[in-house]
Amino acid sequence: MSPRTSMANPLKKLASCVILDLDGTLLNTDGIVGDILRGFLSKYGKQWDGREAHKIVGKTPKEAAVVIVEEYGLPCLADEFAAEVYPLFSSQNIIPKGWNDQIVMFEFSNLRFLEAAKRLKKEPSSCLVIEDSIPGVTAGKAAGMEVVAVPSIPKQTHLYESADDILNSLLDLQPEKWGLPPFKDWIECTLPIEPWYIGGPVVKGFGRGSKVLGIPTANLSTSNYASLLSEHVSGVYFGWAGLSSRGVFKMVMSIGWNPYFNNTEKTIEPWLLHEFEEDFYGEELNLVIVGYIRPEANFPSLESLITKIHEDRRIAERALDLPLYSKYKDDPYLLRCSDSNCNHL
Ligand SMILES: [Mg+2]
């Protein structure tokens, strides 16, 4: 049994195979869509801010073009927009050659899932579909399959109610819920991930961490990291934190959506697991993030949130002693200093 399933975990309907959507589920194409539309719309003096993203996820290219031309009041026809923009997607090489035709044949209807079941020689009722879009979830259910939704658009889970389960990300998929073999890479309530690196001066946050929660986080400015953060799903992570003048510390952190930015910007809030005598605003903080603990969640009370954060801290502190994670403590990135005035090294 996976370490995550120590609590009661009801078995859902048994499945014998999994059909994974590609676009937006296996591939992080939403970031690419944002980059391309941002560049294109700026030519018309418009700014892509992601607010219309939920209106185009799961749409055909034609439907999406109509939405964008209308929403942004572009002085062109949807067909002209499509003719100019879609070649930009092809140039990104995000879809393996030869797949396009097969995908276009069945995309956006339940036929693609029925065709997949036929090729797998399985009954539709024994297939588990994993989808990121609302039309995809609807199509999976219309095909008579079990459907797990991994919504591309944050904070819109209420729109995916027809799905049999809704996950924050594929990191939280538990195949054993459908009688499939569990993933074996979870260790001590943590999932090792490919390490990623982020750093910069510590900035003042909203003051919530220290004053309201009693948990002082060292906030990083994410202005230079928007695309890096878009690659990482929201949730609770852990790793090592380096302050060039003070040393290396264990760290647990949340990545999430800031409602003040209308869900278009993620924030990152690392909690250095050490008692510091004073603030260190402006100091260079470098992080190596090595593992994942859990998705973001809502809590019924402040107390239950604080209890959960302390549980996250205990999980991170213990896990970081495992050789699998402790080896990153010596990563030279942690104590590097990009500031030219910095002479600690
Ligand atoms: Mg999709």
* CATH architecture descriptor name of the largest domain: 3-Layer(aba) Sandwich
**Radius of gyration based on Cα positions:** 22 Å
Largest sheet: 6 strands, antiparallel
Mean pLDDT level:
82
Q: Shape from CA axes?
A: globular
Number of helices: 11
Distance between the termini: 46 Å
- Domain count: the total is 2
User: What small molecules does the structure contain?
Assistant: magnesium ion
Looking at the structure, the CATH topology of the largest domain is Rossmann fold
Q: In which range does the helix fraction lie?
A: 25-40%
CATH class (first level) name of the largest domain: Alpha Beta
**Which structural class is indicated by helix and strand composition?**
alpha/beta
Tell me how many strands there are. Answer: 10
Strands ordered across the widest β-sheet: 6-5-10-7-8-9
Strand content: 15-25%
User: Helix-strand pattern, N to C?
Assistant: EHHHHHHEHEEEHEHEEEEHH
Unreliable residue runs: 95-105, 259-263
What does this structure look like?
There is one protein chain. The protein has 345 residues and is an alpha/beta fold. Residues 95-105 and 259-263 have low confidence and may be disordered. The N and C termini lie far apart (46 Å). The protein has helices at 29-42, 53-56, 61-71, 78-90, 99-106, 111-120, 134-142, 208-211, 226-230, 302-319, 323-326, and strands at residues 17-20, 127-131, 146-149, 165-166, 191-203, 219-220, 235-243, 247-257, 266-272, 284-294. The chain folds into 2 domains: 10-178, Rossmann fold (3-Layer(aba) Sandwich), CATH 3.40.50; 191-335, Beta Barrel (Elongation Factor Tu (Ef-tu), domain 3). β8 and β9 form a beta hairpin. The relative contact order is 0.12. The strands form 2 sheets. Strands 6-5-10-7-8-9 form a 6-stranded antiparallel β-sheet. Strands 1-2-3-4 form a 4-stranded parallel β-sheet. Bound molecules: magnesium ion. Magnesium ion binds at residues 21, 23-25, 132-133, 136. Magnesium ion (MG) binds next to loops.
